[in-house]
Amino acid sequence: MQVAIPHQLDREEVRRRLRGSSNEFANAVPGGMAEIATSWPSDDRMNMDIQAMGQSLTGHVDIADNQVTFVVDLPAALGFIKPIVEGAIRQQGERLLAPPKAG
Fold it and tell me: Shortest CA distance to 63 belongs to which of 96, 26, 27?
């Protein structure tokens, strides 16, 4: 499952926001019973190990100049929640990547 979210931020700002937000993505998982561990194998990729609903999932986030792509390997047993997970990722991602508000 892939969810691409456009942004207008520089890559360093995207990295900073992602580093501080893995708990927000865990809270968006249906049932609220998820844990996410992250690692950064490169500047533009954040790997995720996700424990949710008795399942172990993996995924990653790729940072590009104009979009961030969330990729989650959803097992067939959890295929029924794909629309919910996609919606949660999109909602949290758009909020996370929103441009700073003019003051």
Answer: 96
